[in-house]
User: What shape does this take?
Amino acid sequence: MRNFTSVNDICDLKKALEEAFEIKADRYKYCDLGKNKTLMMVFFNSSLRTRLSTQKAALNLGMNVIVLDINQGAWKLETERGVIMDGDKPEHILEAIPVMGSYCDVIGVRSFARFENKADDYNEVILNQFIKYSGRPVFSMEAATRHPLQSFADLITIEEHKTKARPKVVLTWAPHPKALPQAVPNSFAEWMNATDYEFVITHPKGYELDPAFVGNARVEYDQMKAFEGADFVYAKNWAAYTGDNYGKVLSTDREWTVSDRQMAVTNNAYFMHCLPVRRNMIVTDDVIESERSLVIPEAANREISATVVLKNILEGLK
Ligand code: AN0
Ligand code: CP
Assistant: This one.
């Protein structure tokens, strides 16, 4: 593997899952693979899980790790080419990226959608500049349109808990006070569409995702109907995608907050969320604390998905 930015970088999903369970059984199995190799993690946005799990994954493989928080202690970066740099940004990303590349062997990048320009977000302008100018393998730690390390961990978690070959998985929009990217739902949909699960997406009108990510999923606007017989409920907020509403919050309707009311019509479904989660906006205390809540094992599997991805990238370096 060279770069990891979406499910398409995994050539065999079944094999990737086998590797995940192999690593889960012995996470230090490849502890010499990363000897004298350096991972650089570059964060344009905050993180708890991605930061810790990816660092742990690199340590499992014997790598060295450097972390750069662009907004804390680094120079502010200009990202547009052609700008006369007489403002508040002392450095251009076109120098910064190859310089970062010169200190490491692999680069992880977290760079959320900015909601300033839909085309820039959906063309993954920042992530692609890292791929083009760093000279190193690059992997996404959540970019503008996808969060593949999260979706891989979600898939591992579903595989561990499913009790039938073809579970019903429901992705539901839930309310949140701030505009959040579509990366997590886009990516989750893309990974679910790569399986043979029954996959349903539910959201209020106006929250339609990019059809390229929706793929073959069934879209059901009635949340209660969508939840009927579900084996897994995956909650997430996202801001609007379509037209002039791109990046806008159209609703904070707490009827959509996942509670015992909706969970009651499921097939005793497991509850999932990538975290961080706002309680009693996205999900009630009772549901997230219930024995059917998978949020903690799901977060723990981030170490596993990151170890598999880094292992494959390291193998590609040789
Ligand atoms: C981010 C998002 O919704 O994309 C990160 C989730 C992993 N969430 C927040 O900013 C709260
Ligand atoms: N789920 C996830 O990526 O969490 P962080 O934003 O804390 O990394």
Q: What stands out?
A: The pocket of N-acetyl-L-norvaline (ligand 1) is lined by residues 142, 180-181, 183-184, 274, 276 (CB under 6 Å). The chain has a mean pLDDT of 98. The chain has two domains: 7-146+302-317, 150-298.
